[in-house]
Amino acid sequence: MVKNIAIARNDFPILNEKINGEPLTYLDNAATTQKPQAVIDALTHYYEHDNANIHRGVYTLAERATEGYEGVRQHVAKFIHAATDEVIFTRGTTTSLNWVALGFASQVLQAGDEIIITVMEHHSNLVPWQQAAQRAGVKLRYVEINEQGELDLAQYADLLSAKTKIVAFTHVSNVLGTINPVKQMTKMAHDVGAYVVVDGAQAVGHFKVDMQDLDCDFYAFSGHKVYGPTGIGVLYGKRELLTLMNPVEFGGEMINLVQRQITDFKPAPEKFEAGTMPIAQAIGLGAALAYIEAIGWPAIEAHEQELVNAAYAQLAAIEGLTIYGPPAGPTRSALITFNLNGVHPHDVATVLDTQGVAVRAGHHCAQPLMQALGVSATTRASFGLYNNQADVDRLCAALVETKEFFQV
Ligand code: C6P
Fold first, then answer.
1. Ligand 1 mutation pick, 27, 32, 93, max ligand atoms within 8 A of CB
2. Which of 18, 205, 320, 388 has the most crowded CB, counting CB atoms within 10 A?
């Protein structure tokens, strides 16, 4: 099943919606992506034909559900080039990162250590490290950005030292669109003996990620940002580090033996997956990955690159519009954040909505980055594989109308 990206939008029923009488121009893919019919069908099929709890039952239906769920674990492993037992299912990126900051950091941090994160982190990869640093009484240090919205790698090199125990950073900024050089930054951290945690929330649906190539120690992403359901996410961890890492939640199905005072846990990944997991959501995630594979990374990457380049050029031509982050090119992913000078981003987003254009406005859960940029909020248009040139044109036309409306 090879699918043609040019007609992919026909696979997403919600894109036929009319919003305020206008066709939906959905440009909030960084918040969550829409779901193709194949994912919706997989969820329905699971509930209509296979629904049972997993790992517990010996009856046929339970075995079918277990096979489906574990099959998706294998699929995810192949998708990111990892071993199957290095893939843990979670609720999403936020849960994945919290689990590392709680269950792993607590095992390795000692007095005098330092954690390095970056000023462009989403709160989900910032607050857990603040908390971990406070609990362990260690320093939290920040890599800054340069004028282009890229990480200052010289300053990063200066920050790294024998004290650095953990480095955590995002693969792609959800505000600047910057694609960080994960492989290079990981190597630099490993050279001083630090562990590397990568937030892949804004990367996985847009280009191929390969754990063997990146060599990071942990990598987190969300199903709902890769055309899958909400409520399911992934934490990848190197096998030996997952052995070292403690579970954060305790309960059914993650144990070998429970006695009155002590418990023997199963190995990873089971030891992290306490209680009934989001089984249907995992099945939906599997369908989403299959959908992406049917289109193929070369087509997705080329399409999104072309679209973001066009959008960048058209937006840059609108007078009074400030764009944040790197120029269009290989270090920018499929999103563009901007401000229309003199108009609050919430007002921009509200007027765009009257034209059916859905964008996000606000601080994007990245307040330290907003402070570094010297703004309190921005507007963001973020693209997915089903967006096309007509969406870009509608966004730009709606922005011009917004300017006229506010007379700026
Ligand atoms: N960013 C956005 O509109 P969850 O909510 O756990 O699926 O993902 C959290 C998260 C972590 N890291 C990055 C880089 C992210 O962009 C996000 C989610 C959304 O930008 C919602 S705030």
1. 93
2. 205
- Per-residue pLDDT tens for 79-93? 999 999 999 999 999
What distance, in Å, lies between the first and last C-alpha atoms of the chain?
Answer: 49
Task: Tell whether the model's pLDDT for residue 274 goes beyond 70.
Answer: yes
The residue to which tokens 């674990």 are assigned? 73
Query: Is there an atom of ligand 1 within 6 Å of 124 CB?
Result: yes
Q: Please say if the pLDDT value at position 1 is more than 70.
A: no
Compute, in angstroms, the gap from residue 31 CA to the centroid of ligand 1: 6
Report CA(135)–ligand 1 centroid distance (Å): 24
Catalytic residues: 365
214 CB less than 6 Å from ligand 1? no
Whether 316 is in the pocket of ligand 1, judged by its Cβ within 6 Å, is: no
Q: What is the mean pLDDT of residues 302-313?
A: 98
Ligand 1 neighbourhood includes 382 CB (under 6 angstroms): no
Q: CATH 3.90.1150.10 in the chain, residues? A: 5-30+297-403
User: Ligand 1: which residue has its CA nearest to atom 5?
Assistant: 94
DSSP code per residue over 114-143: EEEEETT--GGGTHHHHHHHHHHT-EEEEE
Give the whole-number percent of the chain exceeding pLDDT 90. 98
CA–centroid distance, residue 179 to ligand 1 (Å): 15
According to DSSP, residue 48 is labeled I
Contact indicator for 238, 207 with CB cutoff of 8 Å: no
Residues of the chain within CATH 3.40.640.10 domain(s) are 41-293
Q: Does residue 289 contact residue 80 with C-beta atoms inside 8 Å?
A: no
CATH 3.40.50.720 fits 5-30+297-403, yes or no: no
41-293 to CATH, choices 3.40.50.261, 3.40.640.10, 2.170.150.40, 3.30.70.920: 3.40.640.10
Q: How confident is the model at residue 57 (pLDDT cuts 50, 70, 90)?
A: confident
Cβ–Cβ < 8 Å for 65, 52: yes
The number of the ligand 1 atom at minimal distance from the alpha carbon of 173 is 14
Say whether pLDDT at 56 is over 90: no
Nearest CA to ligand 1 atom 3: 31
Q: Is 55 in the pocket of ligand 1 (CB under 6 A)?
A: no
List the beta strands (DSSP E) in 203-288: 218-222, 233-237, 255-258, 263-265
